[in-house]
Amino acid sequence: MTSINEAFLSDFSSMSSIGSTAGGGVDRQAATVADGQNRNWFRGLVEGHGFSVRYDSVGNQYAMLELVPGAPWIAVGSHLDSQPLGGRFDGAYGVLAGAHAAKRVEAALVFAKETARFNIVVINWFNEEGCRFKPSMMGSSVYAGKISAAQVLETTDPHGITVREALEAIGTIGDFELSVSAYVEIHIEQGRSLEDRALNIGLVESTWGANKYEFVVNGDQAHTGATIIADRQDALLGASALVVAAREIALKHSTAEHMVITSCGEFNVFPNSPVVVASRVNLLVDVRSTDPGVLAAADADLHARVGQIERMANVRIERGAEHVWGAKSYDRAGLKLAGEAADSLGLSHGVVRTLAGHDSTNMKDVVPTIMLFVPSVEGISHNERELTRNEDMIAGVELLSEVLLRVVKGEFISDSDPTQELATDTTVGA
Hints:
430 residues; alpha/beta; 8-stranded mixed beta sheet; 4-stranded antiparallel beta sheet; 13 helices; 14 strands; globular; disordered C terminus
């Protein structure tokens, strides 16, 4: 193995020790102490390689490698925050791979005596995971103008701590702004299609559509022994019926061409006492599909079931915040460029769709974007057993380096391309 690949694996091992868990994963939820330590570790690493590091108003971390003074910027990145008891590869691999790829691009340009047309910024997006603060993909959503910085900064975690307070506590908040002309991201697949097809690389052609809803099921607190069934307004019964309904909807609406996936990833019961009928349950339900029509039908079915459940359980169900993104394609020219780059390296590849949301989901809506996957063993993710093999990580870094080299040389977007005007208008905090 070459020394540059050994250096990447060594850095990945060091990074994975921060916030490490007994089961082999990491717990680095957004703006926690562990997340702050990891951000500072990353800052020290890249500053040692000639990058400069800044933070914007919602904690996005920018590591800038200036190749040509005054030239526009190409972004590459992902996120360093994790789920509770999450895997060490999710997001973090893409950020570190981006930094290593940027340095390889710089070295390749020097060796070939070529001049780049773009500079490179590696972005660690704030709170992609959305487990401490909702919604997910928070930092890139602000960058893309989908939510405001003011709204994000006042968002609280379950303990009432605001994003602003949390970022100030770890010292990673600033007022930096930077426009970019294109975006590249590499990520573990978090599924098993690449492994099943024995492919090195996934070229992401589109996202799944996803509708995420926060529901509050309101009942009435009562004694579990003394209150007869007819008199109960059991919020837990209503919430449980909603979870079951979501699964039934996925089975009902999935077709051979378009799958529907539904989930309940968060469930909080009040007062959560063994002898009290629940008065309130807060839960999150999401519905996803590759086809807009199928998604719309499944979504309508879900909301129709809400009224049925209210009547069955004698409860009232409120729909709270929602987070929605459509099934949209990535840039076709970027897909072609990435495929040609993979061919040049002898890497097997195939076209895939992303079931999960990523920061590229937001970025593709404002600048030309390329999304790449490397395999996940058995498709396991958001789990301490999450694993991507060393050889697959290395192949991903090599491909990302080749793709990024082509992009900064102007093969994806020229520095006079009309989309540059769009990128210029897309400033942080918009």
